[in-house]
Amino acid sequence: MRLSRRHPRYASLRVRASLADAAGRGLVAPEGLIAHGRGEAFDYLLGERTSPSARRAERAAAVWLRHARRPVLSVNGNVAALAAGEVARLQRAVPGLSVEVNLFHRTAARAALVGRTLRRAGVRGVRGVRPTARVPGLPSDRAWVDARGIAVADVCLVPLEDGDRAEALRRLGKRVISIDLNPLSRTSRAADLPIVDELCRALRGISRASRRIGPSPRDGRLPAFDAPRALAEAYATIDQRLSRAARRRKPPR
Ligand code: PTJ
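^ thats the input. predicted complex w/ PTJ below
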C-alpha cells in the first residue's frame, strides 16, 4: 500500500505499516499489533508528546541506569520492530547496559530473529536468545531469562511489559523502570519508576539525559522516585485534555 506524505496521520500510518510488515516476518506477534493499537489510543489521549512529568521520569531513569550495578533493558518483538536503533543508541549512552531478548510469545525462531534485528542495528552482546534461567512464580514463557542478565540485574528497564512479570521482577527485589503509554496498566502501577510515554520518545529522552549526566559510579544508589505522583500526573493530563474538549465540544489538538 502506498502512503501519501500529505496524509495528516502519515507518521502513525507508516509505523503501522512497518509493524504489519514485521508481523508478516514473524518479528512481531499478532498480539503485538493489538498492543500497539492500545498504545496509540493512549498516546492520542496524552497529546502525542512527552509531558513534563514523563520528561522528569526519563531523567530519573537515566540516573538509575547510570548508577545501577547491573542494568538490563528487556526487548520484545514490538520493541525490536519499533526501536532497534534507539536501543543501540541507549546502549551507547549508558555504558554497561545489557540488552536481553524477552518474549511473551516465545519460539526459538522468534527469539533468534529479535536477536538478529538488534545486532544488525548495532546492539552488542545481546542476551536471552537461548535463555538459561527462569523467574520463579511466572507460568508464562516470559519467565525465561539469561542467568547473567535479568536474573542478576538490579535495575530492569521493561518497555511494553506485561503486569505479571513486572510484579515478579519486583518480588525478586529488582527495581523496575517501565515504559508504557497506559498509566492504568498493571505494569505502570507495579513499576518503581513508570515512564508514561511513547517507546521511541522515551528511549531518546533517556539517552539524551544519560549523555548529559556523563560517567557515574556504579554504586547502586538510586535516588527516590515518586511513582504514584508520576501516574497521577499522567491521569491529570488525560483528564485535562478530555475536559477541555468537552467544554469546547471540539477535540484538543
Ligand atoms: O513480542 P512478545 O511475544 O513478547 O509480545 C509483546 C506484547 C506487546 C504483545 C506483549 O508484551 C503484550 O501483550 O503486552 P500488553 O500486555 O498488551 O502490554 C503492552 C502495553 O504497552 C500496553 O499497555 C500498551 O498501551 C503499551 N504500548 C503499546 N505500544 C506502545 C506502548 N507503550 C509505549 N510505546 C508504544 N509504542
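The first strand starts at residue 71 and ends at 75.
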